[in-house]
Amino acid sequence: MMLEKILNISVDCVVFGYDITSKSLNLLLIKRYLESNNEVLVDDYVLTGYHVYTHETLDDTATRVLKELTGLTNQYKKQFKAFGNPDRLMRPKDIIWIENEAFHLRTTTIAYYFLLKTEDVDLTNNTNGAAWFPVNDLPELGFDHKQIIQEAYEDLKEKCLSEPIIFKLLPDKFTINDVQDLYESILGIEIDNRNFRRKLINKKYIIALDEKQVGVSKKPAQLYMFSKDIYDKMFQKNYLISI
Amino acid sequence: MMLEKILNISVDCVVFGYDITSKSLNLLLIKRYLESNNEVLVDDYVLTGYHVYTHETLDDTATRVLKELTGLTNQYKKQFKAFGNPDRLMRPKDIIWIENEAFHLRTTTIAYYFLLKTEDVDLTNNTNGAAWFPVNDLPELGFDHKQIIQEAYEDLKEKCLSEPIIFKLLPDKFTINDVQDLYESILGIEIDNRNFRRKLINKKYIIALDEKQVGVSKKPAQLYMFSKDIYDKMFQKNYLISI
DNA sequence: ACAAAAGTGTTATCAGTACACCCATGC
DNA sequence: GCATGGGTGTACTGATAACACTTTTGT
Questions:
Q1: pLDDT in tens, B31-74
Q2: Domain B9-159 sits in CATH 3.90.1150.200
Q3: How far does the CA of residue A54 sit from the closest CA of chain B (Å)?
Q4: Which of residues 181-240 of A touch strand D (CB under 7 A)?
Q5: Tens digits of per-residue pLDDT, A221-242?
Q6: Which nucleotide has the shortest C1'-to-CA distance from A219?
Q7: Residue A115: strand pairing partners
Q8: B85 reaches A (C-beta below 8 A)
Q9: Any idea which fold B170-235 has?
Q10: Which of A225, A217, A142 is nearest to A178 (CA)?
């Protein structure tokens, strides 16, 4: 099939990766660097993204972009907003960059976010200057990507309260404290360990395994898994109005 | 300013209107009709929408589209999803229609929904064949607009549980039972009147007015208003994890 | 006086919150 | 044996859910 780009429509991907070792919620960003006559014209970071091809769905574009950068497929993906302000690519650095890259100044982007584990991504051979940054300590960002990230993060914060997407950021086998640490990272709050533990263990879709942590230098913790099957079976909308 | 359309990007508007008299949640749709040699080629309904102009934001496009159809501005508006499947305008009727209208077969649309009161809209002079339809009894729809409506409605159902957007569908002065009726319409559930009443009246931003209904043929009910000011002041995120 | 919708109270249950110490393990 | 993080129990409070009858008004 011929790959014909739609020149004014792109998909940008906010890739959230949780590093369970350092307990850090990170974003995967791409280096944007341009110099001319020893003068640095552009030196910052952007989200990974690409034009939509004429034959593909927006979801397909997002999947493709993630795969090209990380090799990963089947990660949690959500389209959360379209950004199409006429001036969104119009800052001086962006204009220089776009001249160099030959794409359309009036591009609307459909933004997605992905949830995955940093450990699943191998960046050693990547040629994009891709790197992880803690979500609360980001470098200078090009285009309107700071805003896009901001809105993705807000959506993630909200969604993780009502849907079990948190487990997409964790390994298949995790401890209760892993989950608590991650909630605390995402939401920037402190949670009472006893209450949290009770709450989670009481869920039927949080299943205690016959396994404990290995290779830790302290008391090894009980491992659990999340059962999507049980969750889906149990799930029923509750119409609790809380305004 | 010159009005130059972006030919492959549009905004479609799902206009929810609540008719408090008939207690009906309605959608505002546009007639699509085309015949040739006495043969009816296209006869169905679509959402109101239009291309994005090069100089305007997506939000501006949505606002403009609503204004052109209804004359209304400053209504609650939410961008909820972009639809860009390559085949979304490719059903036979859609292709006939698009030939006739001369727009792009590979158009991505940014979908918004609006919340307003049917009584605020005057359709008597409208030339689009616009009409209200109960959200659960829609006519045949063109393009992928059935799906767009479906997703808008799902989003509305979810949002009305956690944000006070329900009041955008009601007049400034309403009774407790009005609110209950509307929740029941939107969610398709039954709510216990005593519990609901207590819950709502206890909110500090639901303010009892010194007024009762007039012109009703039964016992007139107490009127209330919603104070956005008080709501905003009181509001603080609660990080209740309910997965 | 009657029809229709408005309005009212109590109890039981469940979930959330606050709070401090002992335990098991690897080193 | 000790440092580290894992793991545990109770009491209070507030919200939800279930449930049926009386009151007010217009006609």
A1: 999 999 999 999 999 999 999 999 999 999 999 999 999 999 99
A2: no
A3: 7
A4: 193-195, 197-198, 212, 218-219, 221-222, 238, 240
A5: 999 999 999 999 988 788 999 9
A6: C25
A7: A16, A76
A8: yes
A9: Arc Repressor Mutant, subunit A (1.10.10)
A10: A225
pLDDT band at B242 (very low <50, low <70, confident <90, very high): very high
Residue A180 approaches strand D within 7 Å at CB: no
Q: Confidence band (pLDDT; 50, 70, 90) for B157?
A: very high
Q: Would the Cβ of B217 be found within 7 angstroms of any atom in strand D? A: yes
Per-domain residue ranges of chain B: 9-159, 170-235
Q: A180 touching B, CB under 8 A?
A: no
For the segment A109-132, the average pLDDT, to the nearest whole number, is 94
* Mean pLDDT of all residues in B222-230: 96
**Is the pLDDT score of A13 beyond 90?**
yes
A194 touches strand C (CB under 7 A): yes
How far is the CA of A182 from the CAs of A81, A120, A177, B18, in angstroms?
Answer: 24, 17, 8, 41
**Torsion angle, CA of B215/B217/B220/B225, rounded to 10 degrees?**
-50
